[in-house]
Amino acid sequence: MAELMHDDAVFRPKPSLPPPPNTVGVVGWLRKNLFGGPFDTLMTVVGATLIVYFGHKLFMYGVVNAVWEAESYRECLDITGGDGACWAGVDRWMSNYIYGRYSVDERWRVNLGFIVLAVWLAPFWFPRVTQKILVGVSAVLTFPFLAANLFLGGDPGLFLEVMTAIALTCFAAVWLNVAACYAGYKSVGVVIVRVSGFADKDDRMHKWVLLGAFGVGFVLAFLYQSTWDLAEVPTVNWGGLFLTLVISGIGISSALPAGVILALGRRSKMPVIQVFCTAFIELFRSVPLITILFMAVTMMPLFLPVSINPDKLVLVIIAVCIFAAAYMAEIVRGGLQAINKGQYEAAQAMGLNYWKMMTLIIMPQALKLMIPNIVGNFMGLLKDTTLVSIIGLYDILLMTKASGQDPKWLGMHTEPMLFAAAVFFVMCFCMSKYSQHLEKTIGGGYGRR
Amino acid sequence: MAVLEKGSPRRESRSFGEWVNDERVRSVFYQILVAVAVIFVAHYLFTNTTENLKARGMSSGFDFLGSTAGFSIAWTVLPYNPDDNYFHVYLVGIVNTLTVSLVAIVCMTLLGFIVGVMRLSKNWLIAQIAAWYVEILRNTPLLLQILFWFLAVFSLLPRPRDSMSLIDLFFLNNRGFYMPAPVPGDGFDLTMIAILVAIVATYALAVWARKRHFATGQRFPAFWTGLGILFGLPLLVFLVTGAPLTFDYPSLQGFNFVGGVTVPPAFCALLLALVIYHSAYLAESVRAGILSVSHGQTEAAYSLGLRPGMTLRLVIVPQAMRAVVPPMISNWMNVVKNSSLAIAIGYPDLVAVFMQTSLNQSGHAIEIVAMVMLFYMSVSLSISLALNYYNKLVQLKER
Hints:
Chain A is mainly alpha-helical. In chain A, 70% of the residues lie in helices and 0% in strands.
């Protein structure tokens, strides 16, 4: 007992032993993740064998035995004996896969259009820029008209000219706003009001000043765009990845607003509106896209007045928009249902009317919840756009098929399809990874999930 | 008007402002507005259509269904010849669509579950393989995959003379897939009856075992016994009646195979693409479903003394299925819908034979589009009814 009184009797823990060597480091990782037991080891061996076998085959086919310089598919076959890819043909057809049969001299317009869109949307990623919603809304609502004017050329007609001018003004406003934000102001509106000398007047005056500034910009833009003299490129010459992006882009940008309206209609308490919206959504969700496309191409011309002979591309775009809107409506409805009823009640208790409640309280929360599904829907639409090849629009898929029917490159099917698959994979993979990133950064902001 | 006054019986007279700002008045106003707009658009489309039909000298109505189709169809499940009428073409198309969809659904479900479980494997390599399988297949268009299998795989197979064969019973070449066809002999009906009896008996056994388990706590090996009955009874009857089943084997005669069952390359390519593409989607649902069961459930089951196998079967799987089945069923619906892409490679499904060939020949666009949409809508409607029924069945029973 006496020993306990001694200082040494105080409990001093020994330093813990290091973990057994076979549970740490590379060996430990291997044991844990690859060779955990006899069955695990067997699976690893089988899996590794499969990977090595197919990886080797693909590498030999795509790289080692591949032909990069050739004049025809026959020449490729003579060199490889059919064991290697004929990338020479893909390279020769590359511009067609991207632009279709768009006139070579006019292809800068396609490039310019997509560059303008990228520059337009770039402020989204600038941290100091305010009013990002307006950036997105203006791009979605007005850019398609600018692009139509730019891509189509010829005589656009007054409507398209006006819309183009509005789009140009919006574009200028977006980038003036960026400049203003980085110069330390709150937005471009503040700058305009201050410069014009109405800063000390009341808010209602400010609105008119801004509208006037927009009007001046509009007139300038209208005069500017009327100097354009673009050669007409008919839509039958549009093709390749360009056409795929045009169709899916318009489908995507119209799907969100149309889907929101349909979803609100379906949840509305007014029976007539509810019935129409539900019928529309259910009808177009339950049939395959290809039937809607056939309907658009064969039935819609019958519905229109005899004098109108609509462009096939326009009919297809209408079909894609209908399809996308119906799917988006269900996603939006899911998002709205996920919002706590207390949010609606709180908004009503604050005295907000229906539209204010929806736009200020419900939709911002619901849209954040919906991001993964919306992006998934966009990816689906991008992939589904390939169906237009069935009714004879030369999108990227039909272009790859056409290259295999070219007399010089007869029989070249695998290589162009691998190329197209890679293009789609890169686009969709990036979108899905970006949506996961968005989900983390803005979706979690309110402590949900 | 009467409706409005009934809605506000308290006051006799109201100012215009109050009246306009009444939510019920507005609601009725908007609804009338929408209804009028829809009716107006419908009327506009209808007049245009009648004018168009008159201008093109076309008739409308379903009379054309009785006239002879006159074209041949490459491959049909139902017997068909070009003298049959358009309505028969419609049925042939439906059966062809349903055939490929059903086979695809069965295979896709199996493969999807396997890949989904593989994605959750503790083995890093296996999980990675499954993850990349899912990523690559989900991020490329289905139509591209169908064309790839058709143009780059099934069209490049050897000629019939150099067919790939499996134990000389199954042959694969660029004309399709050949397999032996069963030919039932006399007395085979008895075996079919035995199969039915076995199914009923197994079901009854399962019900009885479950009841006994709940009543006494004793478990009965219903699964293995059921399996024994299911296979044993028909086999016994089959052998006792003298094995009345022969096979018609495919054999090479001249340039092609004769006999057996033939499936065209387009069917194989479509089936393979549908199975692989949709299995990737199903795998994700399966993975999410299994992950949705909290780990506490496993621990609770272990602490109750259940063995790992029983934990999986009695605790994890039933709860995971609640999350897996709804997306799985909508996946099945997508298989039926996406089988319409068959048209791109010439498999004669409903859209190909009816919406394309028949429509081009007869010109009855509206009727044909409506009939095709009706078919797909009824399929999707019946599937969603089944889904609703299932959801009611498995809904959490909240107190």
